[in-house]
# Entry
Amino acid sequence: METRVAVMSIILEDSARAEEINTILHTYGRYIIGRMGIPYRQKNIHIISVAVDAPQDAISAMAGRLGRIPGVNIKTAYSNFTSCAEE
# Structure
C-alpha cells in the first residue's frame, strides 16, 4: 500500500470541540508521526500541527472528519514523497 507524508494544520476556534479532535486523531493514531499543539491565549484559539505518513484515502478521510467539526479550520500540505507501507 502506497503512503504519502503530509502535514495537517488545524485551527480550533472553540475549545469545547477539543475532545472531538482528539478522538479523531486517536482513531488515526497509527499514521501520526508527531503532533504539536499551541494555545494562542491572546486570540482564544488553538493551533495544532499533525505530521502523518498514511495512504491518501486515510489522510483525506481524517481531514474530512476534522473539517466537519464546527469551529475547526484545516488545511493539508502533501509532500511529493511516497513509499510503500510496511505490512
Residues 2-84 form a domain with the Alpha-Beta Plaits fold (CATH 3.30.70.1150). The chain is about 25% helix and 50% strand.
